[in-house]
Design brief:
The chain has 504 residues and is an alpha+beta fold. The protein contains 9 helices and 28 strands.
Length: 504
Protein backbone atom coordinates (compact mmCIF):
# COMPACT_ATOMS: atom_id res chain seq x y z
CA UNK A 1 0.00 0.00 0.00
CA UNK A 2 0.86 3.64 -0.49
CA UNK A 3 -0.20 5.40 2.72
CA UNK A 4 -0.75 9.15 3.03
CA UNK A 5 0.71 9.99 6.44
CA UNK A 6 -1.40 13.17 6.66
CA UNK A 7 -4.81 11.51 6.55
CA UNK A 8 -4.20 7.74 6.52
CA UNK A 9 -5.60 7.26 3.01
CA UNK A 10 -4.38 4.03 1.44
CA UNK A 11 -3.84 3.08 -2.18
CA UNK A 12 -3.33 -0.61 -2.84
CA UNK A 13 -0.19 -1.34 -4.86
CA UNK A 14 -0.26 -5.14 -5.04
CA UNK A 15 -0.64 -8.32 -3.07
CA UNK A 16 0.24 -11.96 -3.61
CA UNK A 17 3.43 -13.93 -3.33
CA UNK A 18 6.26 -11.43 -3.66
CA UNK A 19 9.99 -11.02 -3.09
CA UNK A 20 12.48 -8.20 -3.47
CA UNK A 21 10.13 -5.26 -2.94
CA UNK A 22 12.04 -2.01 -3.42
CA UNK A 23 11.03 1.68 -3.52
CA UNK A 24 12.83 4.03 -5.91
CA UNK A 25 14.93 6.69 -4.17
CA UNK A 26 12.58 9.41 -5.43
CA UNK A 27 9.52 7.50 -4.21
CA UNK A 28 7.77 7.41 -7.60
CA UNK A 29 8.01 3.69 -8.33
CA UNK A 30 7.94 0.36 -6.51
CA UNK A 31 9.36 -2.85 -7.98
CA UNK A 32 8.97 -6.45 -6.82
CA UNK A 33 9.40 -10.00 -8.08
CA UNK A 34 6.12 -11.86 -8.53
CA UNK A 35 6.82 -15.47 -7.53
CA UNK A 36 3.81 -16.85 -9.39
CA UNK A 37 4.36 -14.95 -12.64
CA UNK A 38 8.14 -15.31 -12.22
CA UNK A 39 8.64 -11.76 -13.44
CA UNK A 40 9.84 -8.37 -12.21
CA UNK A 41 6.95 -5.92 -11.87
CA UNK A 42 6.83 -2.14 -11.38
CA UNK A 43 4.08 0.17 -10.06
CA UNK A 44 4.03 3.88 -10.86
CA UNK A 45 2.82 6.37 -8.26
CA UNK A 46 2.09 8.86 -11.05
CA UNK A 47 -0.11 6.61 -13.20
CA UNK A 48 -1.17 4.02 -10.60
CA UNK A 49 -0.46 1.29 -13.15
CA UNK A 50 1.51 -1.95 -12.79
CA UNK A 51 3.80 -3.11 -15.62
CA UNK A 52 5.61 -6.40 -16.23
CA UNK A 53 9.23 -5.34 -16.74
CA UNK A 54 10.98 -8.59 -17.61
CA UNK A 55 8.63 -10.66 -19.77
CA UNK A 56 10.18 -9.39 -23.03
CA UNK A 57 13.71 -10.46 -22.10
CA UNK A 58 13.20 -14.12 -23.09
CA UNK A 59 15.43 -15.34 -20.25
CA UNK A 60 14.34 -16.76 -16.92
CA UNK A 61 14.69 -14.41 -13.97
CA UNK A 62 13.92 -17.13 -11.40
CA UNK A 63 16.44 -19.57 -9.98
CA UNK A 64 16.36 -22.53 -12.36
CA UNK A 65 18.66 -24.60 -10.13
CA UNK A 66 16.42 -24.35 -7.07
CA UNK A 67 15.19 -27.88 -6.29
CA UNK A 68 13.03 -27.07 -3.25
CA UNK A 69 9.25 -27.77 -3.39
CA UNK A 70 8.37 -24.08 -3.41
CA UNK A 71 8.00 -21.16 -5.79
CA UNK A 72 11.42 -20.27 -7.16
CA UNK A 73 13.08 -17.07 -5.91
CA UNK A 74 14.70 -14.47 -8.19
CA UNK A 75 18.43 -14.73 -8.85
CA UNK A 76 19.03 -11.54 -6.91
CA UNK A 77 17.51 -8.27 -5.82
CA UNK A 78 16.76 -5.15 -7.83
CA UNK A 79 19.12 -2.18 -7.62
CA UNK A 80 17.87 1.25 -8.65
CA UNK A 81 19.82 3.61 -10.87
CA UNK A 82 20.63 7.02 -9.40
CA UNK A 83 18.27 8.77 -11.83
CA UNK A 84 15.43 6.42 -10.74
CA UNK A 85 14.71 5.60 -14.38
CA UNK A 86 15.41 1.89 -14.14
CA UNK A 87 16.60 -1.12 -12.20
CA UNK A 88 19.56 -3.46 -12.54
CA UNK A 89 18.66 -7.15 -12.06
CA UNK A 90 20.40 -10.48 -12.81
CA UNK A 91 19.32 -13.56 -14.71
CA UNK A 92 21.23 -16.80 -14.20
CA UNK A 93 24.33 -15.47 -15.92
CA UNK A 94 24.04 -11.85 -17.02
CA UNK A 95 23.07 -8.45 -15.65
CA UNK A 96 20.28 -6.32 -17.11
CA UNK A 97 19.30 -2.66 -17.01
CA UNK A 98 15.51 -2.41 -17.36
CA UNK A 99 13.93 1.06 -17.71
CA UNK A 100 10.74 1.45 -15.69
CA UNK A 101 9.01 3.23 -18.58
CA UNK A 102 8.94 -0.04 -20.52
CA UNK A 103 11.55 0.95 -23.12
CA UNK A 104 14.28 -1.37 -24.41
CA UNK A 105 16.30 -3.21 -21.75
CA UNK A 106 20.10 -3.35 -21.99
CA UNK A 107 22.21 -6.43 -21.26
CA UNK A 108 25.05 -4.86 -19.28
CA UNK A 109 27.26 -7.91 -19.85
CA UNK A 110 26.33 -8.35 -23.55
CA UNK A 111 25.37 -12.01 -23.10
CA UNK A 112 28.96 -12.99 -22.28
CA UNK A 113 27.78 -14.71 -19.13
CA UNK A 114 25.33 -17.02 -20.87
CA UNK A 115 27.78 -17.68 -23.70
CA UNK A 116 30.66 -18.63 -21.40
CA UNK A 117 28.71 -20.06 -18.41
CA UNK A 118 29.87 -17.16 -16.24
CA UNK A 119 27.74 -15.57 -13.56
CA UNK A 120 28.01 -11.79 -13.25
CA UNK A 121 26.62 -10.07 -10.15
CA UNK A 122 26.48 -6.40 -9.17
CA UNK A 123 28.86 -5.35 -6.37
CA UNK A 124 27.92 -2.17 -4.52
CA UNK A 125 30.74 0.21 -3.65
CA UNK A 126 28.47 2.63 -1.79
CA UNK A 127 28.07 3.10 1.91
CA UNK A 128 25.10 1.25 3.34
CA UNK A 129 23.38 4.53 4.24
CA UNK A 130 23.74 5.86 0.67
CA UNK A 131 20.40 5.35 -1.11
CA UNK A 132 21.38 7.24 -4.27
CA UNK A 133 21.53 4.20 -6.55
CA UNK A 134 23.80 3.12 -9.41
CA UNK A 135 25.25 6.00 -11.40
CA UNK A 136 25.36 5.49 -15.16
CA UNK A 137 28.42 7.71 -15.58
CA UNK A 138 30.71 5.51 -13.48
CA UNK A 139 31.99 1.94 -13.80
CA UNK A 140 29.65 -0.76 -12.49
CA UNK A 141 31.60 -3.32 -10.46
CA UNK A 142 30.80 -7.01 -10.82
CA UNK A 143 31.70 -10.27 -9.15
CA UNK A 144 32.51 -13.11 -11.55
CA UNK A 145 31.96 -16.86 -11.12
CA UNK A 146 32.58 -19.52 -13.78
CA UNK A 147 30.08 -22.39 -13.51
CA UNK A 148 32.34 -24.76 -15.44
CA UNK A 149 35.74 -24.15 -13.85
CA UNK A 150 34.54 -22.71 -10.48
CA UNK A 151 36.97 -19.78 -10.89
CA UNK A 152 36.18 -16.37 -9.42
CA UNK A 153 37.08 -12.76 -10.04
CA UNK A 154 35.93 -9.16 -10.32
CA UNK A 155 35.12 -7.11 -13.41
CA UNK A 156 33.59 -3.79 -14.46
CA UNK A 157 30.98 -2.89 -17.02
CA UNK A 158 29.07 0.22 -18.03
CA UNK A 159 25.63 1.02 -19.41
CA UNK A 160 26.87 0.23 -22.92
CA UNK A 161 27.87 -3.29 -21.86
CA UNK A 162 31.66 -2.93 -22.05
CA UNK A 163 32.87 -5.70 -19.74
CA UNK A 164 36.48 -5.66 -18.51
CA UNK A 165 38.01 -8.19 -16.13
CA UNK A 166 39.99 -6.78 -13.21
CA UNK A 167 41.09 -10.03 -11.58
CA UNK A 168 40.13 -13.59 -12.41
CA UNK A 169 41.48 -17.09 -11.86
CA UNK A 170 41.58 -20.22 -9.65
CA UNK A 171 41.04 -18.29 -6.43
CA UNK A 172 38.30 -17.01 -4.16
CA UNK A 173 37.96 -13.23 -4.01
CA UNK A 174 35.85 -11.42 -1.42
CA UNK A 175 35.58 -8.37 0.88
CA UNK A 176 35.71 -6.03 -2.10
CA UNK A 177 35.94 -2.34 -1.09
CA UNK A 178 36.69 0.76 -3.11
CA UNK A 179 38.14 4.06 -1.87
CA UNK A 180 35.66 6.96 -1.88
CA UNK A 181 37.97 9.43 -3.63
CA UNK A 182 40.23 7.20 -5.74
CA UNK A 183 40.12 4.15 -8.00
CA UNK A 184 42.03 2.09 -5.40
CA UNK A 185 40.39 -1.21 -4.44
CA UNK A 186 41.15 -3.65 -1.64
CA UNK A 187 40.03 -7.26 -1.56
CA UNK A 188 40.90 -10.65 -0.13
CA UNK A 189 42.28 -13.41 -2.32
CA UNK A 190 43.08 -17.04 -1.58
CA UNK A 191 42.40 -20.68 -2.37
CA UNK A 192 42.82 -24.03 -0.64
CA UNK A 193 46.60 -23.68 -0.61
CA UNK A 194 46.77 -19.95 0.08
CA UNK A 195 45.09 -18.20 3.02
CA UNK A 196 42.80 -15.23 2.38
CA UNK A 197 45.38 -12.47 2.37
CA UNK A 198 44.62 -8.80 1.77
CA UNK A 199 45.44 -7.30 -1.64
CA UNK A 200 45.32 -3.81 -3.09
CA UNK A 201 44.40 -3.17 -6.73
CA UNK A 202 45.61 -0.15 -8.73
CA UNK A 203 45.64 -1.60 -12.22
CA UNK A 204 47.43 -4.67 -10.89
CA UNK A 205 47.08 -6.77 -7.75
CA UNK A 206 49.59 -6.47 -4.90
CA UNK A 207 49.54 -8.57 -1.74
CA UNK A 208 49.85 -6.50 1.45
CA UNK A 209 49.49 -9.19 4.15
CA UNK A 210 50.94 -12.59 4.97
CA UNK A 211 48.65 -13.95 7.64
CA UNK A 212 49.63 -17.61 7.78
CA UNK A 213 53.34 -18.20 7.04
CA UNK A 214 53.44 -21.20 9.40
CA UNK A 215 51.36 -23.19 6.91
CA UNK A 216 54.57 -23.88 4.98
CA UNK A 217 55.68 -26.14 7.86
CA UNK A 218 52.79 -28.58 7.36
CA UNK A 219 51.60 -31.11 4.84
CA UNK A 220 48.59 -29.73 3.01
CA UNK A 221 47.04 -31.01 -0.20
CA UNK A 222 45.48 -30.06 -3.51
CA UNK A 223 41.86 -29.78 -4.68
CA UNK A 224 40.52 -30.67 -8.10
CA UNK A 225 37.15 -30.86 -9.81
CA UNK A 226 35.69 -34.37 -10.07
CA UNK A 227 32.84 -35.15 -12.46
CA UNK A 228 30.54 -38.17 -12.66
CA UNK A 229 26.98 -39.13 -13.53
CA UNK A 230 24.34 -39.90 -10.94
CA UNK A 231 22.50 -43.20 -11.29
CA UNK A 232 19.72 -41.35 -13.16
CA UNK A 233 22.22 -39.89 -15.64
CA UNK A 234 22.46 -36.37 -14.18
CA UNK A 235 25.92 -34.86 -14.72
CA UNK A 236 27.39 -33.78 -11.37
CA UNK A 237 30.40 -31.93 -10.01
CA UNK A 238 32.30 -32.45 -6.79
CA UNK A 239 35.60 -31.58 -5.16
CA UNK A 240 38.40 -34.09 -4.66
CA UNK A 241 41.07 -33.16 -2.13
CA UNK A 242 44.28 -35.17 -2.47
CA UNK A 243 47.09 -35.29 0.11
CA UNK A 244 50.35 -33.50 -0.47
CA UNK A 245 52.92 -35.78 -2.12
CA UNK A 246 50.03 -37.81 -3.57
CA UNK A 247 51.25 -41.15 -4.96
CA UNK A 248 48.99 -42.76 -7.55
CA UNK A 249 50.60 -46.13 -6.79
CA UNK A 250 49.30 -46.05 -3.21
CA UNK A 251 45.77 -46.83 -2.05
CA UNK A 252 44.20 -44.15 0.12
CA UNK A 253 41.26 -44.21 2.51
CA UNK A 254 38.45 -41.85 1.50
CA UNK A 255 36.37 -39.50 3.61
CA UNK A 256 33.15 -38.34 1.90
CA UNK A 257 31.58 -35.17 3.29
CA UNK A 258 28.50 -33.50 1.80
CA UNK A 259 25.96 -30.75 2.25
CA UNK A 260 23.74 -29.70 -0.67
CA UNK A 261 26.03 -28.36 -3.45
CA UNK A 262 29.59 -27.39 -2.60
CA UNK A 263 31.54 -27.58 -5.86
CA UNK A 264 31.50 -23.77 -6.12
CA UNK A 265 33.84 -23.77 -3.09
CA UNK A 266 36.63 -25.53 -5.04
CA UNK A 267 38.95 -22.57 -4.49
CA UNK A 268 37.93 -21.72 -0.93
CA UNK A 269 40.52 -21.58 1.81
CA UNK A 270 39.65 -23.99 4.63
CA UNK A 271 41.13 -23.27 8.04
CA UNK A 272 42.39 -26.17 10.14
CA UNK A 273 40.54 -25.84 13.42
CA UNK A 274 38.76 -27.88 16.11
CA UNK A 275 35.54 -29.32 14.73
CA UNK A 276 32.23 -27.71 15.62
CA UNK A 277 30.35 -30.57 13.95
CA UNK A 278 31.99 -31.80 10.74
CA UNK A 279 35.27 -33.35 9.69
CA UNK A 280 37.95 -30.72 9.18
CA UNK A 281 39.03 -31.23 5.57
CA UNK A 282 42.62 -29.87 5.83
CA UNK A 283 43.24 -32.06 8.88
CA UNK A 284 42.11 -35.27 7.18
CA UNK A 285 43.88 -34.46 3.91
CA UNK A 286 47.06 -33.67 5.84
CA UNK A 287 46.73 -37.06 7.50
CA UNK A 288 46.75 -39.01 4.25
CA UNK A 289 43.04 -39.20 3.52
CA UNK A 290 41.44 -38.38 0.21
CA UNK A 291 38.39 -36.21 0.91
CA UNK A 292 35.52 -36.17 -1.57
CA UNK A 293 32.76 -33.52 -1.46
CA UNK A 294 29.97 -34.38 -3.96
CA UNK A 295 27.16 -32.13 -5.15
CA UNK A 296 23.60 -33.37 -4.64
CA UNK A 297 20.47 -32.56 -6.64
CA UNK A 298 17.04 -33.45 -5.29
CA UNK A 299 13.66 -34.63 -6.49
CA UNK A 300 10.61 -33.51 -4.54
CA UNK A 301 9.39 -36.13 -2.12
CA UNK A 302 12.52 -38.26 -2.29
CA UNK A 303 15.43 -36.53 -0.54
CA UNK A 304 16.87 -39.79 0.76
CA UNK A 305 16.93 -41.51 -2.61
CA UNK A 306 18.22 -38.31 -4.20
CA UNK A 307 21.20 -38.44 -1.86
CA UNK A 308 21.74 -42.11 -2.74
CA UNK A 309 21.43 -41.31 -6.45
CA UNK A 310 24.22 -38.71 -6.28
CA UNK A 311 26.54 -39.67 -3.41
CA UNK A 312 26.76 -43.42 -3.87
CA UNK A 313 27.11 -43.00 -7.64
CA UNK A 314 29.97 -40.57 -6.95
CA UNK A 315 31.60 -42.96 -4.48
CA UNK A 316 31.41 -45.81 -7.00
CA UNK A 317 32.86 -43.62 -9.76
CA UNK A 318 35.69 -42.54 -7.46
CA UNK A 319 36.37 -46.14 -6.39
CA UNK A 320 37.28 -47.05 -9.98
CA UNK A 321 40.59 -45.24 -9.54
CA UNK A 322 43.47 -47.54 -8.59
CA UNK A 323 44.60 -45.15 -5.85
CA UNK A 324 41.32 -45.44 -3.95
CA UNK A 325 40.86 -48.18 -1.37
CA UNK A 326 37.20 -48.99 -1.99
CA UNK A 327 37.06 -51.05 1.23
CA UNK A 328 38.05 -48.01 3.30
CA UNK A 329 35.54 -45.32 2.40
CA UNK A 330 33.52 -43.39 4.98
CA UNK A 331 30.76 -40.76 5.03
CA UNK A 332 30.19 -37.86 7.42
CA UNK A 333 27.71 -35.01 7.57
CA UNK A 334 25.98 -32.64 9.97
CA UNK A 335 22.32 -31.56 10.18
CA UNK A 336 20.86 -32.03 6.68
CA UNK A 337 24.06 -33.89 5.85
CA UNK A 338 23.66 -35.92 9.05
CA UNK A 339 20.18 -36.96 7.95
CA UNK A 340 21.55 -38.16 4.63
CA UNK A 341 24.26 -40.17 6.39
CA UNK A 342 21.54 -41.81 8.49
CA UNK A 343 19.54 -42.62 5.36
CA UNK A 344 22.50 -43.90 3.32
CA UNK A 345 23.58 -46.51 5.87
CA UNK A 346 20.12 -48.07 5.52
CA UNK A 347 20.56 -48.28 1.72
CA UNK A 348 24.13 -49.48 1.24
CA UNK A 349 26.91 -51.24 3.11
CA UNK A 350 29.72 -49.94 0.87
CA UNK A 351 31.02 -47.59 3.58
CA UNK A 352 33.35 -48.80 6.31
CA UNK A 353 32.14 -46.18 8.82
CA UNK A 354 29.69 -43.29 9.06
CA UNK A 355 29.41 -40.15 11.17
CA UNK A 356 25.98 -38.51 11.54
CA UNK A 357 25.80 -35.14 13.28
CA UNK A 358 22.36 -33.94 14.46
CA UNK A 359 20.49 -36.33 12.14
CA UNK A 360 16.73 -36.43 11.67
CA UNK A 361 15.97 -40.14 11.91
CA UNK A 362 12.17 -40.04 12.09
CA UNK A 363 10.47 -37.46 9.90
CA UNK A 364 7.04 -38.31 11.31
CA UNK A 365 8.04 -37.06 14.76
CA UNK A 366 10.40 -34.31 13.58
CA UNK A 367 7.61 -32.80 11.46
CA UNK A 368 5.62 -31.89 14.57
CA UNK A 369 8.51 -30.28 16.45
CA UNK A 370 9.55 -26.66 16.76
CA UNK A 371 12.80 -24.75 16.48
CA UNK A 372 13.57 -23.99 20.10
CA UNK A 373 15.33 -20.70 19.44
CA UNK A 374 12.37 -19.11 17.63
CA UNK A 375 9.41 -21.33 18.40
CA UNK A 376 8.77 -21.72 14.65
CA UNK A 377 7.07 -24.94 13.60
CA UNK A 378 9.32 -27.36 11.72
CA UNK A 379 6.49 -28.23 9.33
CA UNK A 380 7.52 -25.59 6.77
CA UNK A 381 10.86 -27.21 6.03
CA UNK A 382 9.23 -30.52 5.08
CA UNK A 383 6.46 -29.01 3.00
CA UNK A 384 8.45 -26.31 1.21
CA UNK A 385 12.16 -26.01 2.01
CA UNK A 386 15.24 -28.09 2.75
CA UNK A 387 13.66 -31.41 3.74
CA UNK A 388 11.90 -31.42 0.36
CA UNK A 389 8.93 -33.72 1.02
CA UNK A 390 6.54 -31.23 -0.59
CA UNK A 391 3.45 -32.43 1.29
CA UNK A 392 2.07 -32.33 4.80
CA UNK A 393 2.36 -35.41 7.00
CA UNK A 394 -1.12 -36.74 6.27
CA UNK A 395 -1.28 -36.31 2.50
CA UNK A 396 2.34 -37.46 2.14
CA UNK A 397 2.42 -40.11 4.88
CA UNK A 398 4.12 -42.73 2.69
CA UNK A 399 6.86 -40.26 1.76
CA UNK A 400 7.57 -39.46 5.41
CA UNK A 401 7.95 -43.18 6.12
CA UNK A 402 10.06 -43.77 2.99
CA UNK A 403 12.49 -41.01 3.96
CA UNK A 404 12.81 -41.87 7.67
CA UNK A 405 15.93 -43.95 8.41
CA UNK A 406 14.43 -45.18 11.70
CA UNK A 407 12.11 -47.62 9.94
CA UNK A 408 14.96 -49.20 7.98
CA UNK A 409 17.55 -49.59 10.74
CA UNK A 410 17.53 -53.42 10.51
CA UNK A 411 19.33 -52.94 7.16
CA UNK A 412 22.31 -51.15 8.74
CA UNK A 413 25.67 -52.92 8.64
CA UNK A 414 27.88 -49.83 8.91
CA UNK A 415 29.36 -48.68 12.28
CA UNK A 416 27.85 -45.27 13.09
CA UNK A 417 29.05 -42.40 15.29
CA UNK A 418 26.23 -39.98 16.18
CA UNK A 419 26.62 -36.52 17.71
CA UNK A 420 23.49 -34.77 18.94
CA UNK A 421 23.46 -32.17 21.70
CA UNK A 422 20.71 -31.55 24.23
CA UNK A 423 20.40 -27.79 23.53
CA UNK A 424 20.03 -28.21 19.77
CA UNK A 425 17.45 -25.66 18.64
CA UNK A 426 17.50 -26.61 14.95
CA UNK A 427 17.09 -30.40 15.03
CA UNK A 428 15.41 -31.85 18.16
CA UNK A 429 18.03 -33.91 19.93
CA UNK A 430 15.60 -36.76 20.49
CA UNK A 431 16.08 -37.49 16.79
CA UNK A 432 19.63 -38.60 17.43
CA UNK A 433 18.48 -40.53 20.48
CA UNK A 434 15.81 -42.35 18.44
CA UNK A 435 18.44 -43.45 15.96
CA UNK A 436 20.92 -44.46 18.67
CA UNK A 437 18.38 -46.42 20.69
CA UNK A 438 17.11 -48.17 17.57
CA UNK A 439 20.58 -49.23 16.49
CA UNK A 440 21.50 -50.37 20.00
CA UNK A 441 18.26 -52.36 20.30
CA UNK A 442 19.13 -54.11 17.05
CA UNK A 443 22.67 -54.87 18.23
CA UNK A 444 24.35 -52.60 15.67
CA UNK A 445 27.75 -50.94 16.37
CA UNK A 446 27.01 -47.31 17.20
CA UNK A 447 28.11 -44.56 19.57
CA UNK A 448 26.36 -41.38 20.70
CA UNK A 449 28.17 -38.18 21.67
CA UNK A 450 26.01 -35.62 23.48
CA UNK A 451 27.68 -32.41 24.64
CA UNK A 452 25.75 -30.96 27.56
CA UNK A 453 24.17 -27.52 27.03
CA UNK A 454 25.64 -27.33 23.51
CA UNK A 455 23.47 -26.39 20.53
CA UNK A 456 23.39 -27.48 16.89
CA UNK A 457 27.12 -26.80 16.42
CA UNK A 458 29.60 -26.79 19.27
CA UNK A 459 30.49 -23.41 20.75
CA UNK A 460 32.79 -24.48 23.59
CA UNK A 461 36.33 -24.85 22.25
CA UNK A 462 37.11 -27.61 24.76
CA UNK A 463 34.21 -29.63 23.39
CA UNK A 464 35.25 -28.91 19.81
CA UNK A 465 38.72 -30.29 20.55
CA UNK A 466 37.14 -33.36 22.15
CA UNK A 467 34.93 -33.99 19.12
CA UNK A 468 37.91 -33.57 16.78
CA UNK A 469 39.83 -36.26 18.64
CA UNK A 470 36.87 -38.62 18.63
CA UNK A 471 36.19 -38.15 14.92
CA UNK A 472 39.83 -38.91 14.19
CA UNK A 473 39.80 -41.91 16.58
CA UNK A 474 36.64 -43.35 15.05
CA UNK A 475 37.56 -43.03 11.39
CA UNK A 476 41.21 -43.97 11.88
CA UNK A 477 40.10 -47.18 13.60
CA UNK A 478 37.81 -48.24 10.78
CA UNK A 479 39.75 -46.85 7.81
CA UNK A 480 43.37 -47.07 8.92
CA UNK A 481 43.32 -49.98 11.34
CA UNK A 482 44.62 -48.02 14.35
CA UNK A 483 43.89 -49.46 17.82
CA UNK A 484 40.35 -48.97 19.12
CA UNK A 485 40.37 -46.07 21.58
CA UNK A 486 39.16 -46.73 25.11
CA UNK A 487 36.01 -44.63 24.71
CA UNK A 488 34.77 -46.94 21.95
CA UNK A 489 35.30 -50.15 23.91
CA UNK A 490 32.42 -51.96 25.59
CA UNK A 491 32.00 -51.37 29.35
CA UNK A 492 34.12 -48.23 29.28
CA UNK A 493 32.94 -45.68 31.91
CA UNK A 494 31.00 -42.77 30.48
CA UNK A 495 30.42 -39.21 31.67
CA UNK A 496 27.15 -37.41 32.41
CA UNK A 497 27.35 -33.85 33.71
CA UNK A 498 30.91 -34.42 34.79
CA UNK A 499 30.12 -37.58 36.77
CA UNK A 500 31.56 -40.95 35.75
CA UNK A 501 29.30 -43.97 35.34
CA UNK A 502 30.03 -47.58 34.45
CA UNK A 503 28.00 -50.01 32.36
CA UNK A 504 26.45 -52.72 34.49
Amino acid sequence: YLVDTRNGKRVKITDGKLRGESIAPDGNHVVWFDLEQKQWMVWSRVTGKTTNLSQKLKVNMFNEDDDHPMLAEPYGGANWTADCKGIVVPDRFDLWYIPVDGSQAVNLTQGKGRKDSIQYRYVSTQNYEDKMGIRNDRPVYLSVFNYRTKEYGYATTDFSGNVRNLVYGPYTYNNFAKADSAETIVMKKGNFNNPMDLYVYNGSLERISNINPQQADYLWGTPELFKWKAFDGTQLDGILYKPENFDENKKYPVMIYFYERRSESLYNYLTPAPSRSTVNIPYFVSNDYIVFVPDIVYKDGHPGESAYNCIVAGAQALAKNKWVDSKRMAIQGQSWGGYQVAYLVTRTDMFAAAGAGAPVSNMTSAYGGIRWGTGISRQFQYEHTQSRIGKDLWSGYDLYIENSPLFKLPNVKTPVLIMHNNADGAVPYYQGIEMFMGLRRLGKPCWLLEYNREAHNLANRKNAKDLSVRLSDFFDYYLKGTPMPDWMKPNTPYMINGKEYTVE
